[in-house]
Fold this protein.
Amino acid sequence: HHMGLHSIAHTPIMNVLGNPWISATIGITALLGPGRKILVEGALALLRGSPNMNSLVGLGAVASFLISAASLTFPSLGWDAPFFEEPVMLLAFILLGRSLEGRARARAASDLKALANLLPNQAHMVLDDSVVDVGIASVRKGDVLRVLPGERVPVDGLVVGGRSGVDESMLTGESELVLKEAGGKVSAGSLNWEGPLDVKAVETGASCMISRVARVVEEAQAKEPPAQRLADVVAGKFVYGVMGISALTYAFWATLGAKVFPSAVALAGGDSTLLALKLATDVVVVACPCALGLAAPTAVLVGTSLGAKKGLLLRGGAALERLAQVDTVCLDKTGTLTEAKPSISSISLHGGVSETEALLLAASLAKTTRHPIADALLNEAKHRNIGLSEAIESQTEPGMGVSGSIGEKRLFLGRPSWVADRLQLLGEDEASATHRSGKQGNHAGSTVHLGVEGEGVIARFSTVDTIRSDALSTINKLKDMGIKVYLLSGDRERNVERSALQVGIPAHCVYAGLLPEEKAEIIKQLQANGSKVAMVGDGINDAAALATSDVGIAIRGGMDAAEDAAGVVLMGNKLGQVVEVIQLGKVTLGKIRQNLLWALGYNCVTIPLAAGALLPSLGITVSPSTAGAMMAFSSVAVVSNSLLLKNQVLGRRPANNFEQLGRKAGTTTGVQG
């Protein structure tokens, strides 16, 4: 009726729902059913002297129901206040918001399956001249285990036999394979690529590095949020204030008010006790904390749903609150600042061979082996539309290179020193060149040589991990927002410094060669200095830092453990989304504060009015039904203000972005940056 939709208001179903006894049944069902937990917890908190949001919601729901029930049961009171829908509306909004946040918390508190899956259930134990498969729980310090190509190392240990390239990116974030031979250390969970390794166990089970990372993540997830919700802070004092004002209103009009303002009592019907009861209940109803109870949940619901449309997975309102306070952002390098895909950066030629011929020979030979640099050569050849030849008699020497024949040529592709050794060209000039290119490869990216028997080295291929296309603009925007940017990486110092220079991160904000625990320790130091830190990463090596930071931001497409440890997942796999999610946190928290300000301002005006402040002078009072209407208006105002986030956020980017993201992603885990 209030909206002018009279035809809808008088439909059969609306007539049934408009029956006060039907409304009363729905109301009591809502209170004793889904709302029971809120009422019980709110009452217990009130009895303990520490009222919270549940106390406010319970007080408002019960008060509105009791007033409605009294109006329906005792028509002689003349209250005409059957607003049973109020407790149902309030409980519905609160429970919806908490349900969504509960699901997000459950996902964030996962058992870190990705970490557990890195450790194999069985190991190949070397016993004299035989190899026996045993359960990983049976392995003890000092046991020797054989790790075959394609398998993960089951323990922290020392290599006592064999030689192979090992992928340790789960700890260091570095995508290049690391050569492991006798005396080298290996970590549980790292992936063996090329040849068999015999490993002597040094640490097993819970003592392994990967297990220590898991414990850091779990401990960080269990810690309390840095600040209480603004609504809870206000609610604890507000509920006492409402109850106190209601009691004072009753006491005043039942005693002193009747003597001081007899005309006002007469105007209201002449019964001071009934007037006092009506005004006291008006205070409770008009101050029913619908607006206060909805201030945070509605803004959070709108903020998180808008985040989803922009490809930003936010795990509850706590993440939004912490994002709004961020003043420092720490970035991982490999996979976060860069694309984690080696590519050919330059080709140096010798002996008159052309780039096309050199790349054809190198890629044809690389096709016969498994290695990230081999993939880079194949991708470069594909990009240039170079057809490959068939390589025969191919043989891979783990950690060194691959040899084979194409036509009449015997080829060697791999580390500079290994190629030179195979070609027996270690004269003074060639050794110096090999040393120089080997040094360059060790610090500024990887370099491989292509040699031909009888001709020498004919080409050198340098690789680089490409900086994300949006990295520089993202970091500039963060700086414009007054946010400090740090680079934390497990990669080598020269590589990290070069990447930092490309995107404008100052040298004093760059840390290289870090283990997972060391990344988390640096974040703790920043927090100890008063910084609110957001960590952005994509791998298991970042999980501890993500969980230790005030808010962890995971790049989608990395390891599941990183996403489990983070409060935010960037589904678009774009670094630029870091700026978007921080801006979303700021505007959402701004809406929460606006809602709280409105709710408190509304109560500051309406509570004195409901208490009879204008009754003596103007004869104006508020009936319970009017109080209910005002209460409903306050709720609508809060919800409407929260919905304005759509204009504030989506106005910066096309509203159909999420649909475009979904079409691009298809069935993959995310869009490639």
Notes: The longest strand covers residues 338-349.
